From TrEMBL, chain A:
It comes from Neorhizobium turbinariae. Keywords: Amino-acid transport, Signal, Transport. Residues 48-410 form the Leucine-binding protein domain. Belongs to the leucine-binding protein family. The lineage of its organism: Bacteria, Pseudomonadati, Pseudomonadota, Alphaproteobacteria, Hyphomicrobiales. This is Substrate-binding protein. It comes from the Bacteria.
UniProtKB/TrEMBL annotation, chain B:
Coiled coil: none annotated. Keywords: Amino-acid transport, Cell membrane, Membrane, Transmembrane, Transmembrane helix, Transport. PANTHER family: ABC TRANSPORTER ATP-BINDING PROTEIN, BRANCHED-CHAIN AMINO ACID TRANSPORT SYSTEM PERMEASE PROTEIN LIVH. The chain crosses the membrane at residues 16-35, 91-114, 135-153, 190-216, 237-258, 270-297, 309-329. Belongs to the binding-protein-dependent transport system permease family. LivHM subfamily. The lineage of its organism: Bacteria, Pseudomonadati, Pseudomonadota, Alphaproteobacteria, Hyphomicrobiales. It comes from the Bacteria. It is found in: Cell membrane. This is Branched-chain amino acid ABC transporter permease. The keyword ATP-binding does not apply. It is a multi-pass membrane protein. The keyword Ubl conjugation does not apply.
Length: 452, 343
């Protein structure tokens, strides 16, 4: 046996070294649950845990951002055991206890994303690196969602998307660390096309005005495919800048284009402006090709309906959720939100609230904040009681699969909040699709990147 | 094809009239006081918020709660009653309906006071300073005014309805003897164009046919000589600044039904209006008007799908492209005078 200078034998050195490695490195992973918890971004060590709210409080989608903020504040209150508990009382199954998350009180930091992807990404970076956010959530634009989701994947922080409707969010740009509760443009197409066929017939000529970014492109593609499958022709598709405000130059060519349907792939203030201006151009009073000229807005919310006022009456669209749905979850959320803020919640508020609760519940079920374990808890999670019936967080693309609503601007509102009517609820099976059709790769959950 | 081109032409007139009105005010200030006023867009914005304020005053409500009628969230339903209608009946409803044009009555004195206050309180200290410093201070002022409006009214656009009689579209094709519905155009946009044309004509008439205007024009041409004649040209120029503010404010008021105003509306128009002034020729009133309409019409035609099929994205850059070409060919702009902003 060779002897090392100083009296150590090679065997002893190997033994001691192995013992040291086991004692300091490997053993905790084997014997102690959650030992990896020491080594991930913004592991909360104190008595609190921080959510990062990335909210468009200014810009084209500011109304949605303001409503999302109210919803997150309400969700955090409920998670901390304050207020009436809201959807904590009806979520099934639920591991939530109303004492924060894993015993830590929930607090939040926020950033105004200005409805701009670069600002959203910068805000999320700041909240993760400076403020110690364990999870980022919010946003009302798919551009923001995709930018922030990609950042969160790089930094190893979970992103619970707010309002984002582009097929790309859980399609070609999906990420392992990103989750979407909101429905998407493809599902809007599945839902609205049969209703349009019944109401307007199978021989129509459509003209699309489309917000020129990921959401607009995929919605145009999905609605075009769905209406063409009905037998409609697409006369023209025209892209408009996000936040264009004055759409008159894009609306005038519609008048003599031979189209008899105008499809507005616009959202938020853009939709309010484009629809209002389309009505000013007399489009809802026109006859074209021997038919009444119609306007369709494939995605709209009660906030936009309020902004558009009289102009939205009778117009078809789709929504993720509506406050006057009769199920227990919708009633509970509307009651909590209405009592707190004096108005019913929008679909943006609903998705924001639900996402906050689902993240918290996943942490409780995983028993840790360690992101790969939380991801596992969310993937394939099936739940009920949140307002859209039985819902599945699909593991393949992190898209929530649930029912979708076809809505119509209310012709005879009974109050300032009674602006939409639910025309049809499309069930989860009908709104289902193969996640492979949009491609994309989720990527790996581990090794977890280090954010600081 | 004629209908398509005619519609785009009308659209160009409509856009051009907004550009021309703002550029007119900018040129009045530059031509009289020699100040490059980057806060001019903020005056357009304040005018727009005069309309918002006026409507908010007219639509003040009394709020009572009905304890027997509960909302879906369990709180008593609020019953709102408009005060003006309660006081004046049908006349009150007419006032609310015509709130946008009526708010000109509020905007004119408010803008005159703001304009004169701005000139006396800040701008006059920068007459003899370099243009770069004037731009910096007025740009800073524009940001401050925008933030004040944001603090008071919030960041989101506030829609202003047009009078019900002026909603919808006018059948211009039928007026021209064509088949009904071939050329239709929003009534309020026609009103805005006619309003702009009237304001522009009034400003020109004021400068051309009044003694005050004659003195101002003389001062613009040779300030020192007018001063030697014992005329207080400074006071007249201060009033001209106020008039420029009123023009911008009225343009803002009447634009609110077309574009719900928020705190950024002035800045959105200001950048293009500066290009309009430069293309028209610094200090030239006819140049500002001509280039305002020219660029508005060109922008409208550039938005046609047939044009964009050949030059994708041309609608976003056409104004700047034309500005570059005109300044290369005519460095002083379309109707610029020798010696203005030249060393």
């Amino acid at each position: 046996m060779s002897t090392i200078k100083g009296g150590f034998t090679r065997r002893n050195v190997i033994k001691t070294g192995l013992t040291g490695i086991l004692a300091t490195g490997v053993a905790p992973l084997v014997f102690s649950r959650g030992a990896w918890a020491q080594d991930f971004c913004n592991n909360p060590t104190g008595s609190t845990v921080t959510f990062g709210l990335n909210l468009p409080l200014t810009g084209a989608y500011a109304e949605e951002g303001a409503d999302e903020q109210k919803a997150y504040e309400l969700a955090i209150k409920h998670l901390n055991g304050e207020g009436d508990g809201g959807l904590l009382n009806v979520l099934k199954p639920s591991a939530l206890k109303g004492n924060g998350i894993l015993g830590k009180k929930v607090q939040y930091v926020s950033s105004d994303s200005q409805t701009k992807s670069d600002v959203a990404r910068a805000g999320a970076t700041r909240m993760i690196e400076r403020d110690g956010a364990i999870m980022i959530t919010g946003g009302s634009s798919s551009g923001e969602a995709i930018a922030v989701q990609s950042l969160c994947q790089e930094l190893g922080v979970i992103f619970m998307a707010g309002l984002t409707h582009s097929n790309d969010t859980t399609g070609k740009d999906k990420r392992r660390y990103g989750f979407r509760h909101f429905f998407n443009a493809y599902q809007s197409g599945i839902a609205i096309a049969p209703v349009l066929g019944e109401e307007y017939g199978k021989e129509r000529r459509a003209y699309h005005l489309t917000a020129d970014y990921t959401w607009g492109w995929t919605q145009e593609e999905s609605i075009k495919a769905a209406t063409e499958a009905l037998g409609w022709q697409t006369v023209q598709t025209v892209r408009t800048p996000l936040g264009a405000a004055d759409f008159s130059q894009y609306l005038t060519p519609v008048l003599n284009s031979g189209a008899d349907v105008l499809i507005l792939n616009h959202y938020g203030n853009d939709m309010v402006n484009s629809l209002t201006q389309a009505v000013q151009f007399g489009m809802r009073d026109r006859q074209a090709n021997g038919k009444q000229f119609e306007v369709v807005v494939p995605l709209f919310s009660e906030l936009m309906a309020k902004g558009a006022g009289e102009n939205i009456k009778g117009i078809f669209g789709t929504s993720n959720w509506h406050w006057n749905l009769p199920d227990e979850g919708s009633k509970a959320f509307t009651k909590s939100f209405g009592a707190a803020y004096g108005s019913p919640p929008s679909q943006a508020a609903h998705t924001a609230y639900v996402q906050a609760l689902l993240y918290a519940d996943a942490c409780e079920r995983a028993g840790t904040f360690y992101p790969p374990e939380v991801i596992k808890a969310l993937e394939g999670f099936e739940f009920d009681g949140m307002g859209n019936g039985k819902t599945l967080y699909r593991a393949e693309d992190h898209q929530c699969m649930k029912s979708v609503l076809v809505v119509r601007g209310n012709e005879k509102p009974t109050s300032q909040f009674d602006v939409l009517n639910i025309v049809k609820e499309i069930d989860r099976e009908t709104a289902n699709y193969d996640p492979a059709i949009f491609g994309g790769e989720l990527g790996a959950a581990e090794p977890v990147p280090q954010c600081r | 094809m004629f209908e398509v081109l005619f519609l785009q032409f009308l659209n160009g007139l409509d856009k051009g009239s907004a550009y021309a009105l703002i550029a007119l005010g900018l040129t009045l200030v530059f031509g009289t006081l020699g100040v490059v006023n980057f806060a001019h867009g903020a005056l357009f914005m304040i005018g727009a918020f005069c309309a918002v304020t006026f409507r908010q005053l007219l639509t003040l409500e009394t709020v009572t709660v009905d304890p027997n009628n509960l909302s879906p969230w369990g709180t008593p339903v609020e019953i709102r009653a408009p005060l003006v209608q309660a006081w004046f009946g049908d006349f009150g409803a007419i006032l609310v309906n015509y709130s946008v044009p009526l708010s000109l009555l509020l905007a004119i004195p408010v803008m005159l006071l703001i304009g004169i206050g701005m000139e006396r309180g800040l701008i006059k200290y920068f007459y003899k300073r370099p243009h770069a410093e004037q731009i910096l201070v007025t740009f800073g002022l524009a940001i401050v005014l925008g933030e004040i409006i944001k603090a008071i009214f919030g960041p989101n656009p506030i829609p202003q309805p047009m009078p019900t009689d002026l909603r919808g579209a006018a059948d211009i094709g039928a007026w021209l003897g064509m088949a009904p519905g071939v050329i239709t155009y929003p009534l309020w946009r026609l009103v805005y164009f006619l309003f702009s044309a009237g304001i522009i004509a009034a400003v020109f008439a004021f400068l051309q046919f009044t003694t005050f205007g004659m003195v101002v024009r003389a001062g613009m041409a040779d300030r020192e000589t007018v001063g030697i004649l014992g005329i207080n040209i400074d006071r007249r120029f201060t009033i001209m600044f106020g008039i420029a503010a009123v023009v911008a404010g009225m343009a803002g008021v009447m634009y609110t039904p077309l574009l719900p105003p928020n705190y950024t509306i002035g800045m959105d128009f200001l950048v293009i209006s500066f290009v309009v002034v430069v293309v028209g020729g610094m200090g030239s009133l006819p140049g500002a008007i001509a280039s305002g309409f020219l660029l508005g019409i060109l922008q409208s035609f550039a938005s046609m799908t047939q044009v964009k099929a050949i030059f994708p994205g041309i609608d976003q850059i056409i104004i700047y492209l034309v500005a570059v070409i005109i300044l290369l060919v005519r460095p002083r702009g379309l109707l610029g005078r020798r010696g203005v902003m030249e060393t």
